[in-house]
Amino acid sequence: MPRTLGASGPTVSPLGLGLAALGRPGYITLGHSGDMGLDRSVQALERRAHAVLDAAYGAGVRYFDAARSYGQAEDFLASWLDSRGLKPGDVIVGSKWGYTYTAGWNVDAERHEVKDHSLAALRRQYTESRARLGAHLGLYQIHSATFDSGVLDDAAVLGALAKLREEGTRVGLSLSGPQQAAVLRRALEVRVDGQPLFSCVQATWNVLERSVGAALADAHACGWGIILKEAVANGRLGPRDVDPTLQPFRTLATEQGASPDVLAMAAALAQPWTSVVLSGAATVAQLDSHLRALTLPYGAALDARLLGMEENSAGYWATRGTLRWN
After folding, report:
1. Closest Cα to residue 180, out of 149, 143, 144?
2. How many whole angstroms separate alpha carbon 92 and alpha carbon 100?
3. Which end of the chain is more exposed for a tag (fewer CB within 10 A), N or C?
4. Where in this chain does the record put each NADP-dependent oxidoreductase domain (predicted)?
């Protein structure tokens, strides 16, 4: 069933496609190196991205997520939209500003992205995003807003975002780290000229890391759109992971006649405040697997069994910080 991106937002598909693993040669998903193969040229990755985008669109996916720091994700998405003759409104496109890609197409780079939430970065990156995506760009988000960057207290940045909103671009933010809930609650309070600034949030939520759930429910109650990312926990809840501590999860998935990633995606889709769950698929086969979550029976009894698998939030993010770019 189609959903809306918030109380007054556009209709979206329950499953969306994120391009973090498709727009650059390296990412922190377990087994990403094997997915990408030996040819990681720009041309090869664009062909791969287009193949996954075609499969997603053919399956009814209508929300696509990119960011300035995802290598050439915006370029790949733009060339796909143009070559398939899609018009603004045929799909919903969101992108993000605040990180700059610095790896130079090198998987082994010392640093893959640099964070900058300044007004100058917003102006530069919005111009870049708009030049690539044109009128398709409907949602523009602060990339990984945190207290450390001070972005939610920067009057100049907030004013510039409010101007984008007035011009018709929906404004949101994405979250990361153990303070997701606190940052979101602060964002719910942000006003510019007496009006709420944000109307959408993209957060990490999965069966291992549920700490932001109550805050997401509050945002949903305020009419915000809720986009969930990392539902498969960067592959930790996927079929390749062999962590013995996660064997109960894998066993439960088998009991449901599903692979682990399908159960993980189904759990995210079942949350009552969810608008869109992003697939981070790097291959058509992975996307096909994630799509099966849309038809997996999921009820309160199954959700209750998954509740006991939640990790300590700080521990979850510490583990995520050890994942290797590959």
Report:
1. 144
2. 23
3. N
4. 46-297
pLDDT level of residue 1 (50, 70, 90 thresholds) = low
Q: How many C-beta atoms surround the C-beta of residue 237 within 10 A? A: 28
* Distance separating alpha carbons of residues 132 and 74, to the nearest angstrom: 7
Torsions phi, psi for 81 (to 5 deg):
-55, -45
Query: Are 143 and 67 contacting, i.e. CB atoms less than 8 angstroms apart?
Result: yes
Dihedral, 263, 50, 228, 101 alpha carbons, nearest 10: 130
Query: CA angle, 86 as apex, 81 and 87 as ends, to 5°?
Result: 115
- Domains within the chain, CATH numbers bracketed: 12-320 (3.20.20.100)
- HSE-CB for 40 with a 13 A CA cutoff: 23
Share of the chain above pLDDT 90, in %: 98
d(CA 69, CA 21): 11
Per-residue 3-state assignment (H helix, E strand, C coil) for the chain: CCEECCCCCCEECCEEEECCCCCCCCCCCCCHHHHHCCCCCHHHHHHHHHHHHHHHHHCCCCEEECCCCCCCHHHHHHHHHHHCCCCCCCCEEEEEECEEECCCCCCCCCCCEEECCCHHHHHHHHHHHHHHHHHHEEEEEECCCCCCCCHHHCHHHHHHHHHHHHCCCEEEEECCCCCHHHHHHHHHHCEECCEECCCEEEEECECCECCCHHHHHHHHHCCCEEEEECCCHHHCCCCCCCCHHHHHHHHHHHHCCCCHHHHHHHHHHCCCCCCEEEECCCCHHHHHHHHHHHHCCCCHHHHHHHHCCCCCHHHHHHHHCCCCCC
